[in-house]
Amino acid sequence: MPYIHFTEEQKLQANAVDLVEFLRFKGEPLVRSGLEFRMASNHSVTVQGNEWYDHAAEKGGGPVTFLKEFYGMNYQEAVLALLNEDVSQLCPRVNKPKEKVKKPFELPPANKDNRRVFAYLLKHRHLDRDVLTTFVKLGLVYEDQKYHNAVFVGMDKDGTPRHAHKRSTNSQGKSFRMTVEGSDFRYAFNWPGSSNQLMVFEAPIDMLSFISKFHDSAWARHSYVALCGTSSQPMLGMLERYPQIDTVHFALDNDQAGQLAMRRLAALAREKGLTVNALVPVLKDWNEDLCANFQQTMEEQQNEQVLS
User: Fold this and answer.
1) Per-residue pLDDT tens for 18-52?
2) Section 237-251 average pLDDT
3) How far apart are CA 209 and CA 193, in angstroms?
4) Rounded to an integer, what distance in angstroms lies between the CA atom of residue 10 and that of residue 84?
5) pTM, full prediction
6) CA 192 – CA 1 distance, rounded (Å)
7) 78 Cβ partners below 8 Å, 6+ apart?
8) Those residues with Cβ within 8 angstroms of residue 241's Cβ, 6 or more apart along the chain or in another chain
9) Which residues sit opposite 121 in a β-bridge?
10) Which of 66, 214, 290, 291 has the fewest CB atoms in 10 Å of its CB?
11) Distance (Å, whole) CA 201 – CA 198
12) Torsion angle (degrees, nearest 10) of CA 255, 248, 161, 58
């Protein structure tokens, strides 16, 4: 392609294209995630307005870099595509927002009880009651007052909440999940143990499902962390705070995004001289495995009753 000179105005126009509308224009399915949207084809990538961020690769940018990164275009091709007449007509431009003042972290107000959270996590997600009760008593899981979401709290070594991840408790329809504004990802949902073992998961429910499925009297000796995505910050935060850890077990989702993230995080752990192991669920994630085991047990019990 011959060199094309773009004016500063054209460059600004290209980088002001609303990425959410552009992806819809291109037929890319999107999944709402709080104020953002995730690409259905790659859950680690979120878009909001004219900005994108890849939580797995921990990088982001504007529309031009998005087309270069995910559509394989060079700079000139990307700018031309964004200045296309159809794009200009169908995709609005995003005015540069005023710089946001970072909101201080605050936990959502707690409901008077945890009835809906217990019902959802025990009846629909089939977590072990004793395991869930342990986390609830310590204030690591609770029900928020306004929307009755499950809130998974990440605390520092002093027991001060520093991170919170919300997840809807509806068992039907679209699920809602988001990280509370102002959260420090170095302290994402975690359990600090005294042993040298750390287990790493994508989501809080996956972490609790794994403990529910395999727990014994010694489960609490080990350390656990949920990335609330695929960022390396929660894992690195745990390794910094608990230097006795020398072995990391990666238990991420059994899909492309999860396994790519596992390889990236494992490389970081090996660079620190740590021993690395991979734990892969049979189905997509540990909660699907837990629910499948529950269903199998129920069917076996029903068969035994019929035979007796």
Assistant:
1) 988 888 888 888 888 767 888 877 777 889 889 99
2) 98
3) 18
4) 11
5) 0.77
6) 56
7) 14, 63, 64, 65, 67, 68, 71
8) 156, 157, 192
9) none
10) 214
11) 10
12) -50
Amino acid at 229: G
Q: State both tokens at 44.
A: 């680690």
Residue 49 falls in which region: left (phi positive, over 0), alpha (psi -120 to 50) or beta: left
